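Many introductory courses stop at the sequence. We go one step further.
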Amino acid sequence: MNPETKLEFHPSAKDSFRERGDRLLSAVRPIQRESVGQTFRAERHPTANLTEKDISHLRRETVDSLTMEVSEVAFTAGGRMAGLTKEECQEIDKLSEAIQRTKDFKLRVSRKFVRDTIIDWIEARTLEQADQDLPSYMLEKANAAVTFFEVWVPLANLAIEHEVRLGPVRVTPISKERLDGWFAEVRKDKTPDELPRIDQALEKERAKVQGLAAACITLRAERQFAVDKALEKSDDVAACFRLFHIANSQPRAAFYCRALGRENPESYSVFILKEDNYLGRTGHMIPPYPDIWELSSERLAILEDDLNSFRGLLAVGQKTEFQKEALDAILLYTRSTMIREPADKLVFIFSALESILLKNENEPIQTHIADRLAFVLGLSTDERKKIARLVRTCYGFRSQFIHHGRTLEDFEVLAEFMMYAWNFFIRLTRYAHQYTTRSDFLEAIETRKYSGP
């Protein structure tokens, strides 16, 4: 669709959404708050104090913490709580999905926005604050919300000297000057009493992000859709840099590069006492420790050929079947760099290899992965035999861990295997542009296998 075109519904879809909205509206009923009979509440320390001035609108959603299903939506109407119960909440979810999947909305509007707007409409109609039908209300709110956004996603543990482009994403440094400009906007028009608290929060934020690289995407969409799309693209970008990091070759190394806040390195925090006397608190990260990969302009120039192959996989446009499969396999493989335990790394590495080196789920795994990896990478008969042997040995390590819970100890063998696997996935970024389907790629390996040394 043209980026400037207004969102619309097909006439038949509009009629359907109107009818479903009206049924939901007629189902609004008084809500009686029931006691759950819980006698214990943890004595948690409040993280913030809210006053009546801080609450402009009260609406309650009851969510099951295990299934994340909403069982009740309630709002204030005429001094009492009114709303919808579980069955109607399930219909709201189904209607949200149907609206968000329409031709215009799926490219611009998030499902969360659609769902929230349906509930806003039900509440507004119940309180007689709106008289539109659901599709008219939805289109008005969605068209007002869709605009151009630029979203910056800080990437944990990655710094670059200059901007690079990967597909539709700019990867650029978060500089001090950039933050100064953003934070000046936050401080503008604040009172002297407010500034100390705001400055403290801004300095805390600066300490987290200044100097990191960010994945930046610009698109015309509703705000939450833009954020969701930016996070999705940041995963691809982070995987690209993880693919070229040396941690891929070391069983006990890690490179926690992902959207900041999602990288999840492990740590602990404990309190120490001696004879009932408090001695203090101790907290440490659990190795492997996060380490910022600083890529200078010279280093980026060295990586440019490899980045260019990956860039092709991320380019906007129609991808071949094999390019899609190769990208999925690389995304899966690079998750191993964010895993602490070597045995867990093997699970991701072999899952990624299986996804690209097997014709189907019925092929024997060890034999075909071992042979195909050997003939892709091996330069001599001896090296091919070595690679096949490493694959079988390490696949045995994986099976012992999954089926028997045994830990890995032969790190030297594992490191050799990991180096070959790393080499394969870097090459895969090029193979993805040489073959149209996985069958074509596997057939080329078979041809090489039977064509002699």
